[in-house]
Amino acid sequence: MKYTVAIAALLLSACAPAQVASTGEAPVAAPEKTATYATLTGEKPIIIAHRGASGLYPEHTILAYQTAIDQGADFIEPDLVMTKDGVLITRHDPYLSDTTNVADHPEFADRKVKRVTPMGEKEDWWVDDFTLAEIKTLKARQQFATRNMELNDQLDIVTFDEVMDLALQAAAEGKTVGLHIEAKWPGYYSSVGLDMVDPIIEGMKAKGLKEAGIPVFIQSFEPEFLAAFAAKSALPTIQNMVGEPYASMMGVTYDLETLETAGVGAEKSFILKEDGTTTDFVDRAHAQGLLVHVYTVRDDQPLKGYADAQAELTALIGAGVDGIWVDYPETGVAVRDAH
User: For residue 49, which of 73, 205, 244, 304 is within the disulfide window of CB 3.0 to 4.6 Å?
Assistant: First the structure.
């Protein structure tokens, strides 16, 4: 992939139910649905629960992940950051104010500091300034003001180990759900001695994910991390791609023809146009043998030009995407399975 600057820092087959013949004879199995998909493999696109069922509950909590599993998501998505003592926890951001009650803890008041990020200077509480024991004194909050706040300050911050345990428990109960794991800001963490590659790999080995048959994708916006990960693991990697205006702000460009990952994680504006039509992005990626996973469809935040999330999902499935991140897994599964 050609960059002007690096960004810092299973599939379920649908079968019709058995039907009773009009002659009163024994039930005869109805023929399987033959719906075809324009995905790279022809299989159904996977539904990826974005930070769990994050539209319903505070993101990256056991309740959000478990709800996503119960609603039939094919994968749940833990975003990983690291604590001061090198423990992987699930937060989307390297700071804590948006999704926890850290500001209500006077004992941590002096931890609020300014840092320079790719998005500008920000004053906040940063995950790697806290030990896991300190993180565990915090509680999760819903970050979107228009969503349900009733469970704020009630749910724990979750470690990567706890997410893996949840997936293992589901598998033991006969419900296999994959992990679509995003390494957040791995370049930054490496710069302060908290490299993420080995902890992720060793953590998965220790838990026995492979032996349990749990599928895994590894995703990141940082190609250097993905290359380092691929040098040590055969797990499929996904190069995330940021849309505008952030691509211009970061000075980042992409070249599908030179990617060495299994696929891309594309912002939906790469595929969906505001006039309701789609681009040729998926076809171009598929021509290179790349899977296309797309983020993020939200029931309560439809893209301009689309009536609702169902319309977005229908357009994305029609375009042939291989996976879709959703905040409301039940909607994603229902639209996908009705195709």
Answer: 73
